[in-house]
Amino acid sequence: MDFGFDTIGNASVICYDRVPVLVTDPWVRGSAYFGSWSHAHEIPEEQMEAIEASRFVWFSHGHPDHLNADSLDLFQDKQILLPDHVGQRMRRELEEAGFSIRVLPDRSWIRLSERIRVLCISDESQNAVLLVDLGGRLLVNLNDSIDRGWGRFVRRIVGQFDDSILLALTGYGDADMINIFDEDGSFIEPAAGAKRPIGPMAAKKTESFGCKRFVPFSCMHNYQRADSAWANEYATPIADHHIGFESDRCEILPAYLRFFGDDGSTVPINPKATEPRIVDPIEFGDDWSEELGTDDRATATSYFRKIGHLPTFLDYVNLRVGGRDNVISFQSRGFERGITFEVPRHSLMEAIGFEVFDDLLIGNFMKTTLHGKWSESALYPDFTPFVTKYGDNGRAHSKEELREYFTAYAKRAPLEYLHHFLEERATNAVRSMVPHDSDLFLRLKRAYWTVKRFL
User: Fold this and answer.
1) Torsion angle defined by CA atoms of residues 335, 338, 341 and 345, in that order, rounded to the nearest 10 degrees
2) 338 falls in which pLDDT band (50, 70, 90)?
3) C-alpha to C-alpha distance for 428 and 422, rounded to whole angstroms
4) How high is the pLDDT of residue 433?
5) Are 109 and 119 in contact (CB under 8 A)?
6) Which position has the higher pLDDT, 431 or 338?
7) Which of the residue ranges 70-79, 254-263, 377-386, 419-428 would you say has the lowest mean pLDDT?
8) Which of 54, 362, 398, 409 can bridge 20 by disulfide, Cβ–Cβ 3.0-4.6 Å?
9) The predicted structure's pLDDT at residue 429
């Protein structure tokens, strides 16, 4: 490959300029989310060699299907490129591990080779966008990001290029917490269960950014733990991304492809599907009968109580471990709204100790029960972002720390931040009232992406 890029794995792009220059989010070994996720497809030898030969490695965020601990030792001699996230957790921990780090300044073009330059945008959700200029053709890598005010800036950049390719998370929606039950013990069927065609929304999103082509991305995984394999029913087969994609402004490309930068042509890469297997959780250290010890309970209590936002809407968190309840209260009385997390001890204490609670939610082997009155959006926007995005990764726990955290992002693009704040308030109100698996919600979502083109 002389000039262009390959897409491979879960969320990896390999960019070439005579030699491999850059690889993004390379999860190439092992599993993710305490063994819950495995690769859906093998990585061909040619692409694996290119990944290992790349000079630069970019990580968008800390989820293990993007920044993967089992894969990291391949990149000790590389230059690690990181978004300028407030809190700088990835930078600090990778530097402590001996890696060479370069933090990319927000919204500035950085040249990596004669024909390749990159521009990175970080946001308050601790995710990031990477724009790659390949000699006049633009690659827009959103990975798992959703527009948090930076969409208008990206659209302006896209408008400067005649050819643009959007890579973005698509799928039915299993790549998040869906193992949720109501107080009566009934499973809450996720929106992913409806298996509504993915194509129409992907086309609307591509049109909204003004891109000419779309590549399905960042959702290529299987569930392999015996206690999470049930979620394979909600995963997205690779062929399903194309269903319903219709547009006179853009086209959809294969999820795995080779893109030639000289003329913009593509050829598919057809990696072999991995053999499905079911693994006993004990292989990942999880014995569901093991209870919390006294020190474990103290550690867990300290972890949740330092998150200052939780008492503003939540009365308690209950950790059901080894069949025993461990209640962490935020109020002295009036237990009306709470959450029970039923989870094996080992993964729980690993998640708390390493401050990666999101990995339990996304792994989908932890059972989450909602007590009391909750909105349609369940743990969003009050629990998950404050615990995992702002707290674990952003290092902002108290009210004052949160104020400083949001202010830091707001100062980077004040008008965009205000626009996003107002937009998010409105969309959260709709999400809390309209069932996510309803036709109305789908129509509103499509209308949202249509309107975004003009905002």
Assistant:
1) -40
2) very high
3) 10
4) 58
5) yes
6) 338
7) 419-428
8) 54
9) 60
Find out if CATH 3.60.15.10 is the number for domain 3-281. Answer: yes
How far is it, in rounded angstroms, from Cα 436 to Cα 439? 8
Name residues whose C-beta falls within 8 Å of residue 45's C-beta, 6 or more positions apart in sequence.
none
Number of residues that make up the chain: 455
Q: Which tokens sit at 145?
A: 């990001």
Answer yes or no: is pLDDT of 442 > 80.
Answer: no
In degrees, rounded to 5, the angle at the alpha carbon of residue 138 between the alpha carbons of residues 136 and 140 is: 170
Q: Which of 293, 436, 318 is nearest to 368 (CA)?
A: 318
Residues 62 and 393: beta-carbon distance below 8 Å: yes
Tokens linked to 92: 């600090």
Contacts of 82 (CB under 8 A, 6+ apart): 58, 59, 90, 91, 94, 101, 102, 103, 104
d(CA 227, CA 280): 8
Assess contact for 285 and 297: CB atoms under 8 A: no
Q: Cα 453 to the chain's mean position, in Å?
A: 23
pTM (whole model) above 0.70? yes
In the numeric block, which tokens belong to residue 427? 């969309």
The 10 Å Cβ neighbour count of residue 268 is 11
Please write down the long-range contacts of 395-400, taking CB distance under 8 Å and 24 or more positions apart: 395/87, 395/89, 396/86, 396/87, 397/306, 397/307, 397/308, 398/306, 398/308, 399/308, 399/309
Residue by residue, DSSP assigns 168-227 as: EE-SSS-SS---EE-TTS-B---GGGG---SHHHHHHHHHHHT-SEEEEES--EEE-BTT
420: left (phi over 0), alpha (psi -120 to 50) or beta: alpha
What is the distance of C-alpha 160 from the center of its chain?
A: 28
Query: d(Cα 220, Cα 181) in Å, to the nearest integer?
Result: 26
pLDDT of 440: 61
**What's the DSSP call for residue 330?**
S
State which amino acid sits at residue 361. Answer: L
Q: Which whole number is the average pLDDT over 273-302?
A: 97
d(CA 73, CA 263): 35
pLDDT at 439: 64
Half-sphere exposure of 92 (CA within 13 A, CB side): 8
Widest CA span of the chain, in angstroms?
A: 67
Helix/strand/coil for 121? strand
Tokens of 32: 């993710």
Question: Do residues 312 and 325 lie in contact, with contact meaning Cβ atoms separated by under 8 Å?
Answer: no
Exposed/middle/buried for residue 172 (C-beta within 10 Å: 0-12, 13-18, 19+)? buried
The alpha carbon dihedral of 220, 226, 227, 232 has a sign of positive
Closest listed residue to residue 210, CA positions, set 149, 258, 161: 161
Rg, C-alpha atoms of the chain: 21
